[in-house]
Write a structure and sequence with these properties.
By secondary structure, the chain is an all-alpha fold. It has one domain. About 70% of the residues lie in helices and about 0% in strands. It is built from two helices and no strands.
Amino acid sequence: MIITYIFTAFIIVGVYLASLALPARYAFSENVTFMLWAVFAILLTLVLMRPAYSLWLSLDFLIDPWKPGDLK
């Protein structure tokens, strides 16, 4: 899960920094802007969950590879 949070944080920071260059960043009130960022972060976390699990499984296999005779 920590990989999901790290990916989400980097993407959100990147999108936020890119959004500072947009001219209409004050189109919404602070409450609406906060809600939009929160919804974006939650959806991004859900989207990145499966790739992060796949990465964890790959790293686990890299550290402790499975052998056909290892079934328990």
